[in-house]
From TrEMBL:
Region (Disordered): 243-273
Protein name: Cobalamin biosynthesis protein CbiX
Stretches with biased composition (Basic residues): 253-263
Length: 273
């Protein structure tokens, strides 16, 4: 298996990184630890044309190393995975592209990872007897935002905080409204923790403690190394990951019938296009 340091990594950003903007400092911080903790991170870009340009640049870089693209989702952005796969499929179809150098990794994390990381962040926030946790993230779509409420409820389970509320940057409720709700419920201290790659509070909210980043740069580098190593292993067997990525949105969104007697029955999964 090729060592992950022999790969060049491009990060694909979506709503959990504010369109990829929150990944820029991660690229710089991860580059500082790459010698010991992970592969070389070449760039970060939002899905679509900017990502395609970043991947082309990585492929053109000296050394001819494999290029691995990591969808930077924490489990709430299946669309990012599918859009990244479509971008890479288009690039591999371009004439003159050498096969076997470009791979789509598994997503950075799944929802269960995010639940665990939020639980870890909650351990350092004031809790008993009247502390509340405010889980924040950039606003996205209704399904993605609803998923964060589910994740926050799971993070509260067996935790130390009686109240775990959710707030969205430029969304409903926003952090100030989320903090007000915590206080109405009886909380005396409110600590904001991000369920995203950016800061917990983009704008300070009076009386709300900033719980800091969800993950340290060394932890990000470790996850990137694991995703890259797995992708390189599969690439060595002729699997570039795009087929799985293209199916990432299956079951995401409203359920609907296919018609002609092929609709889903009770208990069957939803399907969207």
């Amino acid at each position: 298996m090729t060592h992950p340091q022999h790969a060049v990594v491009v990060l694909a950003g979506g709503h959990e990184s504010d369109g990829g903007r929150d990944l820029a400092p991660l690229v710089a911080a991860t580059a500082a630890t790459a010698a010991t903790a992970g592969p070389t991170v070449h760039a970060a870009a939002p899905a679509g044309r900017p990502l395609a340009e970043a991947v082309r640049a990585a492929l053109a870089a000296p050394g001819g190393h494999p290029v691995c693209v990591v969808p930077m989702t924490l489990g709430r952005d299946p669309r990012l995975v599918a859009e990244t796969a479509r971008t890479l499929r288009g690039l591999t179809a371009e004439q003159g592209q050498r096969p076997g150098r470009l791979a789509l990794t598994a997503p950075f994390a799944a929802a269960e990872h995010l639940v665990g990381w939020l639980r870890a962040a909650a351990r350092t926030a004031p809790a008993a007897p009247d502390g509340a946790l405010l889980v924040t993230a950039p606003a996205a779509g209704p399904f993605e935002d609803a998923e964060l409420f589910r994740i926050a409820r799971l993070a509260r389970q067996f935790g130390r905080h009686r109240w775990v509320e959710v707030a969205f940057d430029d969304g409903d409720p926003d952090p100030a409204e989320g903090a007000a709700r915590c206080r109405l419920l009886g909380a005396r201290t409110v600590t904001a923790v991000p369920a995203a790659f950016g800061p917990a509070l983009r704008t300070p909210v009076p009386g709300v403690l900033d719980g800091g980043p969800l993950l340290r740069p060394s932890a990000v580098a470790g996850v990137l190394a694991a995703r890259t190593a797995d992708a390189l292993h599969l690439l060595g067997h002729g699997e570039d990951g795009t087929a799985a990525g293209l199916d990432a949105e299956h079951g995401h969104g409203y359920a609907h019938s296919h018609g002609h007697g092929h609709g889903h029955g009770p208990g069957e999964p939803s399907h969207t296009h």
